[in-house]
Structure formats: structure tokens, C-alpha cells
Automatic annotation (TrEMBL):
PANTHER family: HTH-TYPE TRANSCRIPTIONAL REGULATOR RUTR (PTHR30055), TRANSCRIPTIONAL REGULATORY PROTEIN (PTHR30055:SF151)
Keywords: DNA-binding, Transcription, Transcription regulation
Organism: Streptomyces shaanxiensis
SUPFAM superfamilies with a match to the protein in the record: Homeodomain-like, Tetracyclin repressor-like, C-terminal domain
Name of the protein in its database record: TetR/AcrR family transcriptional regulator C-terminal domain-containing protein
InterPro entries according to UniProt: DNA-bd_HTH_TetR-type_CS (IPR023772), Homeodomain-like_sf (IPR009057), HTH-type_TetR-like_transc_reg (IPR050109), HTH_TetR (IPR001647), Repressor_TetR_C (IPR004111), Tet_transcr_reg_TetR-rel_C_sf (IPR036271)
Keyword Membrane belongs to the record: no
Source lineage: Bacteria, Bacillati, Actinomycetota, Actinomycetes, Kitasatosporales
Annotated ranges, domain HTH tetR-type: 5-65
Keyword 4Fe-4S attributed: no
Amino acid sequence: MARETLNREQIVRAAIELLDAEGIDGLSMRKLGQKLGSAATAMYWHVGNKENLLVLAADEAWSEVRLPDVPAVGWRTAARELMYAARELCDRHRWLVRVITTYVGYSDGMARFQECAYETFETAGFRDADLDWAVSTPFMFVTGLAFMTSTEAAEVKERASRNPAAQSEEEAAVVAQAHAIAAKYPRLAASGEAQARRGESFSEQVDEVFAFGVQTILDGLEARLGARSDSV
């Protein structure tokens, strides 16, 4: 691709592809230039430095989210759709949660999502500081879970649950050590044995945890609304 044909949109889309494949540490202007058949200096000219490129990539990623029609579906359905949409986005772009938590990655795309969240919980009846906390609580749960499941340790757990025989010696040693520590505590040991009997993969367990968390958060927020109306 000739340098003069490059534009910011092309560079950002190529950066997202590189980020999805190699993560933040694998992104460099040199690699991006090679991918686009251009010089690294052209990347800097169009998008500035790496940090600015990450903000642009995050903004583009957030634009993928399809927002619910809050008046049409109601606040609880809308809130559930937003939580699942955010989780799917973070699963699709595993680097995104690191941008959110460690970079100044605020953008129009993220603001668009948050505006819909505010509309959702304002429709439910939350006001003032309670509205801020109602918006923040589900989002913190989603990003926290996404951070935990995007780590190398989570990848080791996933491989162990799918095919223990395929583990490397180092991974097997890590898993064995974790089991040995948990075995000293009866409740942890019982939980581990129950999970093993169910034969679920790590990702299946995470899916169940997420569904439980979404339901519990929404139940709690709804109960708080009810408690407020009862006290009036």
C-alpha cells in the first residue's frame, strides 16, 4: 500500500487487527508500518504516538456496540444488554480492558456507551449520586471480570480444563501448586472437587459466574429502588 493512500481510519483498523492478534505489547509503529506496507514515520504522522493510537483504537472498538432502545425494552433489559455487550466487546478485543484501566483512553465511543447507561438507570428511577453508582457498579463488574479472564493465568486455567495432558511442565506445576494450596482449606477443596465433577471448562465456569453476577446486580439495584420508594 503506497504511503500517500494511507489515512487514519486504515491505520486504526490495522492497529486493531494487530492488537487482537498480539496485544498491546505486540503493537509498534514499525510492525504497523510493515503490515500496511509503509514506513513507521507515516504512522506517527497520521496518528501521533502509540498512546494516542490506543485511544483511537479503543474509540473505534466501542463504536461496535449496538445500544439498546431503552424506552422500547425497559431499563432492566437494557441494562442486561449493555453488560453483555460490554463483556462481548472485551472478549473480542482483550487489549481493550487494559486501555480502559491503564491508559487515558476516554473517547466519544465510550461516552456514547455511558450516555446510554445513564439513560437506562435514570429510566429505572435513580437520581443524583445513586445514578452515578448505578451506572458504575455493572461496568466495574464487567471490566473486572474481563481483566481477570484476559490474563495469562486465565489462559493456563482454560488449557488445563480442556486438555490437562497438553499442559507444559511449567503450567502443570503451577496448577498442581494451586490445587495443593487449596486442599489445605476445606471449603476451597470442596468447591474444587464440585467443579471437577461438573466437568466444565474454565470459560463455561466464567459464563455461569457472569450470568449470576448480572442477575444479582440487577436484582440488587431493583431492590434498592423498591426500598427507596417504601421509605418515602
